[in-house]
């Protein structure tokens, strides 16, 4: 679904979305928006450090591929947010945008490769995942928190015409989708004993991460 405000960012005649982000006129309120991006990045890093610690610990305890993948996504979100923080640490932040997008894209690809491989191994006869109450609670909390954080990031990024800031907001929104997938997989496994639901959720996580990695690499995020 296309978000409101896309027409203001899209090129009027040819060109890529990345070109539109680079050539759009600067915002009159740029300093305030830059400060907002920095605060949102700090909040993203803080939350995801806690999320990663809980998910990776709980996932290893019960051999949950989906939960471990969710924890790794949190680590990648920290890397993504750190790249945006690095970009906006200088006044000429547009000069660093291409590099920041590459870091975000490679982070997505790394997540897709690892979680996809581990999910296939689990489906092929690996260790079955056990029940994780901590994982269920974590997924539910993230499902409630992440949409609001992503929306704030996306609005600030679009106001600044920054493809990397919007890409980072998509990384945060991906966490929302993954929270829903993870929650479903953990509940099916815990309540019904469907152990295959956990690696299946992991494959969904890997697929979405791969798609978003491609979009970030091509610089399509501002659209």
UniProtKB/TrEMBL annotation:
PANTHER family named among the record's database cross-references: TRANSMEMBRANE PROTEIN 163
Swiss-Prot/TrEMBL keywords: Cytoplasmic vesicle, Endosome, Membrane, Synapse, Transmembrane, Transmembrane helix, Zinc
One Pfam family, short name: Cation_efflux
Residues passing through the membrane, by range: 39-61, 67-88, 100-117, 129-151, 172-194
Membrane topology: Multi-pass membrane protein
Main location class: membrane
Gene Ontology molecular function terms on file: monoatomic cation transmembrane transporter activity
InterPro entries, per database record: Cation_efflux_TM, Cation_efflux_TMD_sf, Tmem163
Subcellular location: Cytoplasmic vesicle, Secretory vesicle, Synaptic vesicle membrane; Early endosome membrane
Protein's recorded name: Cobalt transporter
Species the sequence originates in: Amycolatopsis antarctica
Family assignment from sequence similarity: Belongs to the TMEM163 family.
Lineage, opening ranks: Bacteria, Bacillati, Actinomycetota, Actinomycetes, Pseudonocardiales
Stretch list, region Disordered: 1-20
């Amino acid at each position: 679904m296309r978000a409101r405000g896309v027409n203001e960012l899209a090129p009027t005649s040819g060109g890529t979305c990345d070109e539109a982000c680079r050539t759009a006129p600067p915002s009159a309120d740029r300093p305030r928006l830059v400060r907002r991006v920095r605060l949102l990045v700090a909040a993203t890093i803080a939350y995801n450090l806690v999320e990663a610690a809980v998910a990776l610990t709980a996932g290893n305890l019960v051999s949950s591929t989906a939960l471990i993948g969710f924890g790794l996504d949190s680590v990648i979100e920290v890397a993504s947010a750190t790249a945006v923080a690095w970009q906006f640490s200088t006044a000429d932040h547009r000069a660093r945008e291409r590099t920041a997008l590459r870091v975000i894209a490679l982070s997505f690809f790394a997540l897709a490769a690892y979680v996809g491989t581990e999910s296939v191994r689990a489906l092929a006869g690996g260790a079955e995942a056990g029940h994780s109450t901590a994982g269920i609670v974590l997924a539910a909390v993230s499902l409630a928190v992440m949409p609001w954080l992503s929306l704030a990031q996306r609005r600030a990024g679009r106001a600044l015409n920054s493809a990397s800031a919007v890409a980072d907001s998509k990384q945060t929104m991906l966490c929302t989708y993954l929270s829903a997938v993870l929650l479903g997989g953990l509940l099916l496994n815990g309540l019904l004993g469907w152990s295959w639901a956990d690696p299946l959720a992991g494959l969904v996580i890997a697929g979405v991460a791969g798609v978003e990695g491609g979009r970030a690499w091509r610089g399509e995020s501002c659209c």
